[in-house]
């Protein structure tokens, strides 16, 4: 293995965020031969775990929290868990936390992921969200006594929750503004197939509707829709998406409009010695084009974490672009759904049914390919793992034409740091 450790002037690298991306970055730093201190700073008290299990095994009771620990090489990492970063001072190379501590760094990896964005109607703290182990555990406890569960948001997570709820023989209604579930993630065709499966499995849908209000009474919840219909239930879950966890970076003047803006190597634009990776980062993935974008899946976060670590260790101008092919999987309703590449809405679509003339297309197996300029650029399959794997391998092996990143004006400019209120600064104790 070629090791590329170059930044001999780095004594300590601080990684903020101990999820998939942060841990992958730490492992890669060691793999590249970085001998210094690697400090892992994380808001959650738990060590790294498998976040996707929160909407799967934990809810159904097939997994306990201790079964979700993330396997990784803990090679001499220093852990600071249960501490939330609240401010970054890039001039001083320090990160400050809600515990009043201050962490110095030579190199910094921003890997704070995303957190649920709760809509206005979900202001009551009794509305469940689902992003971490604690949320999953709390929801599981509520599901035990529930008879009818209202899920708002028919994306991947909402549909996984519905699958868990029905497997526990609870009634379940799914509300979404789109006419099918999971359209954004799976495309219209597979979105349609899976919506049919869910209907067959007894899910009650209110598609094409938005929630107007949710009120809790002694007898349970009343959720009112935009057409005036009132739905009643014992548990309400909002799975309405997330937003990048960037609140702690607000004083830096960085471009945080769609996550932390990075160049094609995942170096944070405008800051020396800082990279970002995972769900918090927005960067031009040159495999697909020069426009900044996000890749918010488990495997992409792992690959970005590794790429960002290599960039941090490279000398200036020596880091290559970090490119990833988005891919993810989900298991629900007894279906194994896999996605690779981009499901381009304007692409040509080819549908291959594994067993023709079966009414239950999804259960019988189906692969949908998305083509652009006669190239396969996206793939989604249901219960067709074999076909998916060989097509995905071929797609990954085919390089796309190289593209240039659009030069961003912020690239060379140092952002202006907004002053943090003096009293808050003074309270900070120094631990490093
Ligand atoms: C319920 C659920 C199910 C999912 N299922 C799938 C799936 O089946 N397949 C798939 O591919 N993807 C799935 N995902 C998405 C996948 O989990 C994410 O893409 C991945 O976890 C992103 O990794 P990350 O390291 O960027 O961020 P995260 O995993 O979110 O980790 C970020 C970490 O940073 C910490 N943090 C945040 N702010 C601060 C701060 N200020 N200071 C210190 N620490 C901070 C957070 O507490 C967290 O521990 C799922 C996500 C959820 C929520």
From TrEMBL:
Keywords from the UniProt entry: FAD, Flavoprotein, Oxidoreductase
InterPro entries: FAD-oxidoreductase/Apoptosis, FAD/NAD-bd_sf, FAD/NAD-binding_dom, FAD/NAD-linked_Rdtase_dimer_sf, Reductase_C
Segments for region (Disordered): 412-432
This protein's GO CC annotations: cytoplasm
Record keyword Transmembrane helix present: no
Domain Reductase C-terminal positions: 328-398
Gene3D superfamilies assigned: 3.30.390.30, FAD/NAD(P)-binding domain
Molecular function in Gene Ontology: oxidoreductase activity, acting on NAD(P)H
Cofactor(s) named in the record: FAD
Domain of life of the native organism: Bacteria
Domain FAD/NAD(P)-binding: 12-299
Transmembrane segments: none
Residue stretches of biased makeup (Basic and acidic residues): 412-425
Pfam family, one: Pyr_redox_2
Protein's name according to its UniProt entry: NAD/ferredoxin-dependent reductase-like protein
């Amino acid at each position: 293995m070629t090791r590329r450790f170059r930044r001999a002037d780095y004594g300590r690298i601080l990684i903020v965020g101990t999820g998939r991306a942060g841990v992958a970055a730490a492992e890669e730093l060691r793999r590249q031969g970085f001998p210094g201190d690697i400090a892992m700073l994380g808001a959650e008290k738990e060590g790294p775990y498998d976040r996707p299990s929160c909407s799967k095994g934990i809810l159904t009771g097939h997994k306990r929290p201790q079964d979700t620990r993330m396997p990784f090489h803990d090679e001499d990492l220093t852990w600071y868990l249960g501490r939330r970063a609240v401010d970054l001072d890039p001039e001083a190379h320090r990160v400050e936390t809600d515990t009043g501590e201050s962490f110095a760094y030579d190199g910094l990896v921003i890997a704070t992921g995303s957190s649920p964005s709760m809509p206005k109607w979900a202001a009551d703290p009794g509305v469940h969200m689902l992003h971490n182990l604690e949320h999953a555990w709390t929801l599981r406890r509520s599901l035990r006594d529930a008879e009818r569960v209202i899920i708002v948001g028919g994306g991947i997570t909402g549909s996984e929750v519905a699958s868990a709820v029905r497997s526990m023989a609870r009634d379940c209604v799914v509300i979404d503004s789109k006419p099918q579930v999971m359209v954004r993630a799976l495309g219209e065709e597979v979105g349609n197939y899976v919506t049919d499966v869910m209907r067959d499995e007894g899910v009650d849908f209110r598609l094409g509707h938005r929630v107007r209000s949710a009120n809790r009474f002694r007898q349970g919840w009343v959720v009112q829709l935009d057409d005036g219909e009132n739905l009643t239930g014992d548990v309400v879950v909002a799975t309405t998406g997330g937003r990048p966890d960037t609140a702690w970076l607000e004083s830096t003047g960085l471009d945080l409009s769609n996550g932390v803006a990075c160049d094609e190597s995942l170096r944070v634009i405008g800051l020396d010695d800082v990279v970002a990776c995972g769900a918090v980062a927005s960067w031009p993935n040159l495999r697909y084009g020069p426009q900044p974008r996000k890749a918010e899946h488990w495997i992409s976060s792992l690959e970005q974490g590794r790429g960002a670590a290599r960039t941090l260790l490279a000398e200036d101008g020596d880091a290559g672009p970090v490119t990833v092919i988005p891919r993810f999987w989900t298991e629900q309703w007894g279906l194994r759904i896999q996605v690779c590449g981009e499901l381009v809405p304007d692409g040509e679509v080819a549908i291959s049914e594994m067993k023709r003339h079966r009414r239950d297309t999804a259960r019988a197996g189906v692969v949908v390919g998305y083509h652009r300029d006669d190239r396969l650029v996206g793939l989604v399959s249901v219960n067709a793992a074999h076909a998916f794997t060989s097509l995905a391998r071929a797609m990954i092996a085919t390089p796309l034409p190289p593209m240039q990143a659009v030069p961003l004006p912020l690239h060379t400019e140092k952002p202006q740091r907004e002053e943090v209120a003096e009293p808050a600064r003074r309270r900070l104790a120094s631990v490093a």
